Structures are given as structure tokens and as C-alpha cells.
Amino acid sequence: MIRDISLQDLFSAVEREPHTIIDVRSPSEYSEATIPGSINIPVFTDEERAEIGTLYKQVSKEAANERGLEIFSAKLPAFIRQFKKINTPMTVFCWRGGMRSKTAATVLDLMGIQANRLSGGIRTYRQWVVKELEKESFSPKLIVLNGYTGSGKTVLLNRLADEGFPVINLEQLAGHRGSIFGHIGLEPNNQKKFDSLLIHELQKMKDEPYVYLEGESKRIGKVLIPSFLFDKKENGIHVFIHLPMEQRVKNILADYNPWGAEVKFIEAFKLIKRRIHMPIAKEIEVRIGEGKFEEAVALLLEYYYDPRYAYSTTKHPHENDFVIYADSADDAFEQILNLSLSSRIMNSNVKAVDYFSE
Question: pTM (2 decimals)?
């Protein structure tokens, strides 16, 4: 018997025990946005869905249903086999809790496989995400890691998370490193997917006294940080990290591993080329084309990123900021770790100079 459950019922089920959530929409729909943690076992491929949709619009609903049944019937054995591999309770969903999820749940029921169906489908989940973000509520204090490009802020966040500190990695959620080159080698997320991932991170961290994140701009690649979180970040406790230029270049090269992707880097560079005076801009482009990324990155830092970052930091009040001068990423991490373990960082009356002059 098919059992329809609400979104809150699904959340409760996932919290109680291992639970598999299955998105039965097409692969492209799944890729665009889904419920985090779900897997994709589509009723129709993208091409099949397009064919059925054309029949629905140009012929009739009955013709579309007949073609859909014909297509799905042929793939039933393979469809069932995928579900038999799942050894946890499961819930299926489609766009609005309509025909695709109903068909999937009915077929599974006939084969003796119990699967719930999410009432309202992913649309009701998206409505929940939007409603939660509109509450504009997040109580933990934010400790924000800042630094010139290449200061290893993402690596430091990951190491803090490994040590058990509460961390939200906004660049990871966005699938983008935040720079003009930040999409290369990654799959940037759209706003819907980012919002879904973010709200789950916020809910996981809501009872923490503080959370670490990186000093991002309002936009990361294709997505925007919600205003309430961005404003809270701007007014958080800021830690500024200073590393030597050569160490920053090494960090960037380790992160991007750009060799073999010269064309993509040149294409991205052209978007900012006009903002750098011509002799240097031409030199950077030549170095990228030759695969001399160490030289290109050093020039980009000196003539583009560092001046822009220096300007942006003048707009931030520094009264309660902390400043770290480190020789390496390991040194920076040890200083941040020492600072994190000191309750003094949570005291707004403590100034950076007080802490680091001891």
C-alpha cells in the first residue's frame, strides 16, 4: 500500500534511522536542484521526458500517457533492480508528488517493495527552504577568516572542521572558489541548490555558540548569500591572515592545479584583462599561455587581487579584529587553533593587539 508522507514526516524519518530518498525525476531536473542527500533513479530520461511533453502539448494527454507507459514498461526490470539494492526505508518524490512518483511507488508496491511518497514533491521542499531563509534567523556568532587571495582560508576551514570546530564552507556549497577563475575544475551550483545546501548547514549549526566561515563577497559564482547571513558576517569577529607572497602563490597552484587548462584560464582572464594596465595584462596572458602559472599568479596577485582586497578592507571597522602574521599555512592554522581555544575571542572587548602582544 502506498503511503504519502509530509515533508516533516520525512525529516523525522531521516533523523530516526538510515533512510534513502529517491528523486525519480529526469537527470537534468535532479542536477538542477534536489533534496540534499537524495539519489536519482529516474522514471524517464531527459529525452523521454521531452518526447512525452511534446505529445502532451501537440497531440493529447492520452497519447502522452500511452507513450509514457510504453517507455516505462520496457525499463521496468532495470528500474526494480535498482530499488532492490536499497536496504533502508525509502521515500520517492517527483516535482509535485504527481504521476511519476505515484507510478514508481505503485510499481514498487506490486513487487513487494515498500516506499513512501513525498506529498507535494520537491516543490513543497523548495517552499520550505524559501520560508526558512525568510525567517532571517541564525543565532551563533560568526568568526570570519579573511586574507589576501591565496591565504589558504578554505584549507584552514577544512582543518578546523576536522578538529571538530563548527564550520560553514560557503564556497563548497556554491561549488565555486569565488574568483573569476573559481569555476574551473568545479561544477558551480545554481541558487536553488545553494539555498538547499545552506539551509541544512544553518540548521545543523543553529545551537552552536559560534561558527567559522570565510570572508566572502555577496556573490559567489552564480549564487548570492542571503542578506541576513551576509550582514551577520560583516558584523562578525574577523580574523585577518597574512602570509608571504610566495606561500600564497603555492597555495593557489595547489588548489587550482592549472596545468593543462591554459585555454580555460585565458578565457577567464579576458574578463578582467581590461582592469589591469596593458603591459602587465599582456605579460600575464602570455605567461598563462606558456603554462608559467607561478609567474602569472604572482603578477595577478600584485597588480589585481591585492589592490582590490586592500581597498575592500578599508571599509571594514577594525576595532575588534584579530590579525595573524604567519610564515606558512601550518603556522597560520596553529595560531588560529590557539585563538579558537581561547575564550577571549568571544569577548568583544578584546582587541587583536591585546591577544598577539602577550
Answer: 0.88
